[in-house]
Amino acid sequence: MTNKFESSNPLALVTGASSGIGKEFAAKLASGQSAFNQKHDLIIVARDESRLNEVKDNLESSYGVNVEVISADLQTAKGVALMKERFKDRSRSIDVLINNAGYGYSGNFGEVELKHSIGQIDLNVKALVSLTYFAIESMRRSGEGYILNVSSVAGFMPAPTSAIYAASKAFVTNFSQGVREEISGTGIKLTCLCPGFTRTEFQDRANVDQRNIPGFMWQNVGQVVDAGLNGLAKNHGLVTPGIHNKVLVSTTHAIPSDVLRTIAGLVAKRL
After folding, report:
1. How far apart (Å, rounded) are the C-alpha atoms in residues 268 and 271?
2. Residue range(s) defining the domain that contains residue 76
3. Nearest to 150 by CA among 191, 205, 200, 94
4. The pLDDT of residue 261 is above 60
C-alpha cells in the first residue's frame, strides 16, 4: 500500500497484529501512549487480511497515523520472503520490530499431528530468526533501531503437552540474549519479553484447557504490552511481566531438573 501522506513519525512493524498482544502493541505504538512517548506509523502483519484492515481503519481514524497492511503467513517461505522485501525497501526504513507472531498447540507429542509441531517451529523459531536478521541488516544502515522478541515463561521449564512450544520459546529467549550481546554498541536495542498466561485468543487456538488455571496467574494484554514497551525503550535485555511470573522463573533455576520435570508433568495432568 502507498502511504497516504508524508510522515515524520517513526515506523514500527508488528507481526501477529490482528488480535491479542500484537493488536495491543499496534494500538499502544500508534497512540503514543507508551514508554516511547511518541506516535508511530505502522506496518501490521498477520494472515487474516480482513481483521488487519479493521485494525488499520481503527488506528488511522483514532490516532491519525499511517498504517500499512501486509497479509502474510509467516509459517511459509513466501510469507517470510514478503518481510525480506519490505525490510529491503529503503524509501522508508523500519525503526521498531515487534516479533510477536507465535503459535502453540497442546497435546502429547507423538499423538497430535506432526504439522502442529513443525508449524510452531516454522513460526516461533524460523520466522522470528529471519525477521530479526532482516531488521538488524536494515538497522545497521541507520545505526539505530529497536527489536522486541516475544518469548514466554514456558521457555524456562519443561512443559509436558506443550513440549514443542516451550522448546521454541527457550530458543527465542537464548537466541535473543546472545544476539543482544553481539549487537551491543551498534545502536540497535534488542529486548526479549517473556509473558505468562495472558487473556487472548491464543489459549483457545492452542487447544489449552483453561478451567484449572488460577485467576492470579492471568494478565491482560495491556499489562504485558506496557511491560514490553517500557523494557524496550529502556533497553532492558529480558522482561518478565508480573511478580508471579518473576517468582516462577526464579524458582525454576533453583529446582533440580528431574524434580522440575516431575512437577511440570503433575501440573500438565491437572490442566
Report:
1. 5
2. 11-270
3. 191
4. no
